[in-house]
């Protein structure tokens, strides 16, 4: 609709003009998948969000795959007035714990995108760090993505302080620590160890964090990550089901 297009391009004056002339702030597009409020959030247009909400736009409108505007906090925070738009969505009854079709919450998406600011903002407004998607992953499983940002460690600490289980396993038994190592993030490995990650918990394949971290030795910070695991009690002789120790697995790469 014209209103959806105005919201897409972040044109609050056009949004207001259309609304003043009878446009419906909650009308979905031709496929019924992206109402104006959702589209504005998806594209990170904080001014358009405010204009739509001020005119009766639905803060809980559904987009594709059951996502809501609040799922796009990270995009909104890229705008100078983004936090105000997020708060307006929450005041408009948007749930910070709403789930998409895949079970992802706004907090999960914020962590997956690697936005520490969005993670911390959502936690301040009551987001639950223990909720999982269909994969069984919690927001903390995206520590590697968060550590790509200078404030990543603050977000990891905040998640744990608010109740995130640092040793939670997903459907494949991967803990946040194992995933951080398998994603090739020495910084995330070290950050998770600082908040109490178990250095010896294995996944469903029998692989411990050290089996994955040995593959990081050729990367910047890789040696420090291995040493951090060992200093935290990581077992250098732990074997996989096939009889591989971390050292023998590392030697094969």
Automatic annotation (TrEMBL):
Repeat among keywords: yes
InterPro entries xref list: Ankyrin_rpt, Ankyrin_rpt-contain_sf
Taxonomy, superkingdom: Eukaryota
PROSITE patterns recorded: ANK_REP_REGION (PS50297), ANK_REPEAT (PS50088)
ANK repeats: 1-30, 102-134, 135-171, 172-204
Alphabetically ordered keywords of this record: ANK repeat, Repeat
Protein name, as recorded: Uncharacterized protein
The species this protein was found in: Botryobasidium botryosum (strain FD-172 SS1)
């Amino acid at each position: 609709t014209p209103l959806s297009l105005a919201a897409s391009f972040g044109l609050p004056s056009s949004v207001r003009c259309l609304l003043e002339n009878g446009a419906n702030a909650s009308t979905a597009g031709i496929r019924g998948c992206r109402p104006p409020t959702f589209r504005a959030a998806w594209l990170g247009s904080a001014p358009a969000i405010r204009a739509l909400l001020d005119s009766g736009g639905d803060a809980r409108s559904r987009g594709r795959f059951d996502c809501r505007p609040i799922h796009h906090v990270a995009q909104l925070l890229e705008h100078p007035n983004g936090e105000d738009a997020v708060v307006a969505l929450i005041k408009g009854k948007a749930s910070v714990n709403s789930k998409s079709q895949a079970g992802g919450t706004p907090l999960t998406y914020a962590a997956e995108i690697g936005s520490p600011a969005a993670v911390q903002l959502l936690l301040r407004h009551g987001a639950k760090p223990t909720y999982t998607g269909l994969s069984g992953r919690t927001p903390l499983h995206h520590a590697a993505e968060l550590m790509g940002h200078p404030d990543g460690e603050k977000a990891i600490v905040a998640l744990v302080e608010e109740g995130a289980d640092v040793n939670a396993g997903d459907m494949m038994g991967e803990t946040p620590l194992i995933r951080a190592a398998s994603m090739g993030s020495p910084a995330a490995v070290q950050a998770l160890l600082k908040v109490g990650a178990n250095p010896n918990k294995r996944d469903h394949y029998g692989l411990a964090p050290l089996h994955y971290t040995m593959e990081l030795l050729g990367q910047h910070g890789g040696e420090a990550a291995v040493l951090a695991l060992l200093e935290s009690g990581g077992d250098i002789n732990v074997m996989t089901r096939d009889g591989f120790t971390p050292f023998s697995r590392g030697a094969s790469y």
